[in-house]
Amino acid sequence: MKPKFNLAFKILPVIALIVIVKIFVHNNGMEVFSLNALFTAIISANIFLIGFLVSGVLSDYKESEKIPTDISSIIESIADEGKIIYKTKDKKIGRAMVERCSTICNDISSWFENKKKTSAVMKDLEELNDNFILLEGLSQPPYLARLKNEQNLIRKNINRAHTIKDTNFIGTGYAIVEIITILLVVGFIFIKIEPFYEGMFFVSFVSFMLIYMIYFLKGLDDPFGYGKGSAVENVSLKPFLQTKMRLENWLKENK
Hints:
Helix 1 (6-27) runs antiparallel to helix 7 and helix 3 runs antiparallel to helix 8. This protein has a two-stranded parallel sheet with strand order 1-2. By secondary structure, it is an all-alpha fold. It is 79% helix and 2% strand. The protein has 2 domains: 3-49 and 170-220, no CATH class; 58-167 and 237-253, no CATH class.
């Protein structure tokens, strides 16, 4: 099954339940509502709210896509300074710098997968200071200033990703969309639409669309949902994992 269909298959049991309840209500003559313009207007209003939420969530998602790439580029830049020191001045200090960067890569990778806390990653970044101290006699002050600035940029990106992970976009907006969708689905069940099987098609289709979008929004709102069974695609960690592999390979080759 292709990943893009995961969400659709996830909500099919919910749609099946709605169809079963609808058939039961129809067979027992419990369809007490009639389809009117007000009902269709509520559907349109709910779709408008969903569109508004999608536009807001997408901006965070697009920003999140840049975070792993930015962090990996900065870490590799810091590691490059260690490689230069290794080749030209002090192998032990240079290798220690690259080892530190590799450790930070491993821990941030675990953090992205929700296996480590943000505080543990911040502690690793703080320990970079010990390596910077060792570089004071081997590197020029402007280079050390640049390294400190890049350390700060990693912290900013981690904090930004942490905020995106823990913050829902307009929680009250989600609440009203969920309430309206539930009321609409209940309304669909008790609305009489003739012919019945034509009505069943529209009830199941509209219910599928509305419920799908709610799940889609919640998944999209957590672009770092690794290890949480998210049905929506998370941002790619491929560039970050490639940096991690390059550092590990360099350490193996330069023992």
